[in-house]
Each structure stands twice: as C-alpha cells, then as structure tokens.
Amino acid sequence: VARHFVGDRLGSGPVGTVADLGPGQGAVLKVGGQRSAVYRDESGEIHAVSAVCTHLGCIVGFNDAERTWECPCHGSRFDVDGSVLQGPAVDPLRRLSADADGEPGADES
Ligand code: FES
C-alpha cells in the first residue's frame, strides 16, 4: 500500500471527526490509525470503507455532487459502500465496521 499521500484530508468542508458529518456528507478521516472514507447517509447511518484506492493505493476524496468516492490518481470511482463504479480499480474499497456510535472500527486486517 502506497503511503506517500501525506495530506490530512482531501475531502471538502470542515469535518474533523465522524460526529461532524451531517446527513449526506462524506469525508476522509483518520480513524483507528487508518484513513477511512466515511459517509453519513440521509437516515443518519454511517458507511465506512477504507480510503485507500484498490488500484495503486492513492487516497480517495469525496465528490459532494455525486456522493461518490473518487481517486485523484487515475480516476477510479466508488459508491459510498465501496463498490467500483468506474475503473481502473477492479476491487471494491474494503468495508469497515461501524459501531452504534457511528465510529468505524479499527479493522487493520
Ligand atoms: Fe486510484 Fe489508480 S490509484 S485509480
């Protein structure tokens, strides 16, 4: 996994934690030591997947208009549950568990 992306966050908006996410908002957050692509849907449910693109390991960013995760490196796109919408990535973003408080689990496997 490439670790050369050192920016804190590629998403837009002043979101620092999962609790800051309003309905329909997504952000890349560092949760449990790993970069997580976290989206809160309109019903308040948290969708958390790894922010590491499965193509070559860049960090995805949230597209507010489309509500998708997009990779800045080669243009792969994923839905909020990590499924591939557009390549070159083939594999989905890894799903992370979210507990009742909406905090994604620190799944390092
Ligand atoms: Fe994400 Fe290539 S690293 S599309």
TrEMBL record:
Domain called Rieske: residue spans: 13-102
Top-level division of the source organism's lineage: Bacteria
Entry protein name: FAD-dependent oxidoreductase
Native organism taxonomy: Bacteria, Bacillati, Actinomycetota, Actinomycetes, Streptosporangiales
Shown part of the complete sequence: 404 to 512 of 527
